[in-house]
Specification:
The complex is a heterodimer of chains A (134) and B (56). By secondary structure, chain A is mostly helical. In chain A, 75% of the residues lie in helices and 0% in strands. In chain A, helix 2 packs antiparallel against helix 3 (53-79) and helix 4 packs antiparallel against helix 5 (115-127). Chain B is an all-alpha fold and 56 residues long. Chain B is 84% helix and 0% strand. The two termini of chain B are 31 Å apart. The chains are: A mainly alpha (134), B mainly alpha (56). Chains A and B meet through helix 2, helix 3 and helix 5 of A and helix 1 and helix 2 of B.
Amino acid sequence: MKRALPFVLIVLLVGCGMTVRDTIRTTALVAGTTAHDLNNAEYDLYATGVYDAAKHKQVGATILTALKDVEAFVALAQAWPEHVAFPATVADALAKALTSLDAIANIVKGVPGSEKLMANIAKAKAMLGGGEKK
Amino acid sequence: MSEQLIIALLTLATSLAKNAEQLIGLAKQHGATDEQLQAVRDVLKQDIIRRETEQG
């Protein structure tokens, strides 16, 4: 997937008329917001009593990894200087962030009645350049 | 499934849809600014600290 990402993002760029840097930085902003929202949503789910503290800790470990990966991606996107070609480190960080968001989606998939939620996660991932697996 | 759980799931679905809308809105204008990226990093760092504390 890492090798395909630059191509996917360039297609996105052509579609929007932005520079690659602008596109990646916007993607980073949305990825960060999405990770934060998923984090909050998990606390909301836990508060409903749908699962116990042990499960919350287990799910929390996956979310913690995602938060760290996404924050690292946002940091690299923020540090990307203008007029500099797409750094490989940013592409790698983006791929890692998408993988982490996938891991959260896999957990949510197990919650009964979450089909609509999964559809929205898939949509968010597609917007972030991760494509949709069907 | 409890009513609370349904509400929580719907809230998350709405929030993710809003993110997609935000991206489209931003894409039509300019890339994210340094300030916007810093703000989201600050929020994520707080989330990370809370989760790390829970994990022990």
